[in-house]
Input
Amino acid sequence: MRRSYTLMTVVVAGLIWMGLAGPVSAQETKTEGSQAARQADAVPAATVNGETISKGQLDRELASIQGRMARQGHPVPDESLAQIRGQVLDRMIGEELLFQESRKQKIRVDDQKIQAQIDEMSQSFEDKAAFDLALANAGLSREALTERLRRQMAIQQLIEDKIVAGVTVAEGRAEEFYKANPEIFAQPEQVRARHILIRTGAEADAAAKAEARKQIDEIRQKAIDGEDFAALAKTHSQDPGSKENGGDLGFFARGQMVKPFEDTAFALKENEVSQVVESPFGFHIIQVTGRKPAETIAYETVKPRILEHLKQQAIREKLDAYVDGLRQGAKIEKFI
Output
């Protein structure tokens, strides 16, 4: 049966294959120096043409994926863990096959390119010591990181040469996709609004709420009397995310704000100042500064994105087929 690199696992796999995944965080992995990790590294999970993928490698990769998915709001349920584990191992086998093929094709990665990648990664950290500490927490030395990147970049070059270079998408397919999926390109009505917030904490008593209400009423009266709403927001608003922008929240559609706020914003005329609105965050006044009616995004606007989407889809399908071909000629043993 054809093994498809499903969305749940291949989002991460694609990052690794394209050389974009950095070292995982300390929360996602055990350090390789721990006794348990050393023991797991001695147990094979699979062999691919004689090359071992250890249980420790599999455990770390699975923990990395679990951590990333949890942070994206999609934790892996316990009942799915065994299935995901099998998918991760299959993906690791595919990666090993690609790396072996890159060696057969005599692909070499320039040391300067690897160093440039490391330099780019290190710029996310305060200094060299912080970067080295992050590597240590992830169970990686600089030498191990270098070899991991060398492997990933060799695989990336193989994919570029054997897969990407041969993929083209006719413009007619983009138009067919556009016509077949109108719901994707439907843009709902949106409003652009400013607001001023006076917060009330979850434990605020009646007196605290009354004081907050008094403040927002006074600010609203200033806005009604003609004072600049944006200036009032910069001075008085307690929303740190929008205060410095004069309370501007940008454009938003229904369903993106809490309901009392949303209902009021969509009912306002442009430049009208709302009555006081109470939400779980506190008391607001709102001013709508722009509107966009519901519309369908024009084909010419989205055509480049559709073409790129179809190209990436074709690359994934061709890559799946390519890896399947490598599997057929390989000796693969699984032990878990």
